[in-house]
Amino acid sequence: MRSDSGSLAERLRWARERAFVGRRRELALFRAALDGAPDAPAVLHVHGPGGVGKSTLLRRFADESRDAGRPVVEVNGRLTDPSPAGFRAEAAALGTAPDAVLLIDAFEHCQGLEGWLRDHFLPGLPGRTLVVLAGREGPSPAWIADLAWSEALAVVPLADLDPADAEQLLELRQVAPAVRERVLAFAGGHPLALSLAAGVAARGDGDDPWAPTPDVLTALLSHMVGEVPTAEHRLALEIAAHAMTTTEGLLRAVLGPDRGADLFTWLRRLPVADWGRQGMFLHDLVGDAVDTDLRWRDPEGYEEMHRRVGHHLLDQARTASPAEAMVAIRELSYLKRYGPMGDYFRMRREGDFHEDVLRPGDHDVVRRLIAEAEGPESAAVVDFWLERQPEAFWMYRDSATGEAAAFMTWLRLSEPRPDELAADPVLAQAWEHIVRTGPLRPGEHLLLARFLIHPSAYYEISPVLHLMQLRICAGWIRSGALAWSFIISPFPDLWEALMEHLGHERATVLAWPNGHTYTLFACDWRITPLSVWFDRTQPGALNETPAHVTTGRPAVVPLARADFDAAVRDALRDWHRPDALTTGPLATTRMVTDQPGYAAEHAGAMLRELLADAVDALRADPRDAKFHRVVTTTYFHRVPGQTVAAERLSLPYSTYRRHLRRGCLRVCDILWQRETSGRPIPAPDA
Question: Global pTM?
Answer without folding.
Answer: 0.64
